[in-house]
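Trying the structure run again after the queue cleared.
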Amino acid sequence: MKSIKTFSIALVSLFLLGGCELNELDNYDGPDASISGAIYDQETGELVQQDIINGMQIEYIEHGFDNPQTQFMVVKNDGTYRNNLMFSGTYTIRPVRGNFVPVNSEEVVVSGATTKNFNVQPYIRVRNVQINKKGNKIVATFNLDQTVTNKVVRIGLFAHREPNVGQPLNSVSSLVNLNEVTNDVTQYRLEINLDAYTSALKAGNEYYFRVGALIDAPEAKYNYAPPVRIGI
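Done. Tokens:
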């Protein structure tokens, strides 16, 4: 009986100690800052369009820890990003695995509402885009202005109900493998035959159509023009 009583007291003490430790862990202040910004084309000043799914990310490491954890932020379809759950402090930050020439990391002091933009060199600029419904087809014409000597692997026209349409998110796509170095004079043309996709692209509805091109570079993502909304 005495041993049972002793065990009960020890067990209660253990729970009390555990509760104290949990209370100590919960005493840390919560996030008190935010960071936001955008990815800009360093030549044109335009936002660099992105994929949300499996797209580029903002990599950041908070200073002040022996073994800091690398964390990531998702970049929106239009090339902007925001994180409202940051702690005030100094961070090493950079955009990674994107559709532009890799950039160096930077140290950024985050305090209050902090803005940090990145100026980058996109692998490809998709220019002079025209996307229209012509008869029973969606027709896209455009030029490519590539900024590196790598080959352009593929071009595509993508369709979806959501404006973040692209290679990872589409109901229908029209793809052409180029595997060549392009010039800014050649006009490219891609088509989607609506009669062939009546279940995916239903008459009477509106869809977003977007043109993209992929460079032959490690971890490269598609470069895009802004999506166009068309009723079919």
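Confidence is low (pLDDT under 50) at residues 1-17, 19-23. Worth checking whether this holds up in the mutant runs.
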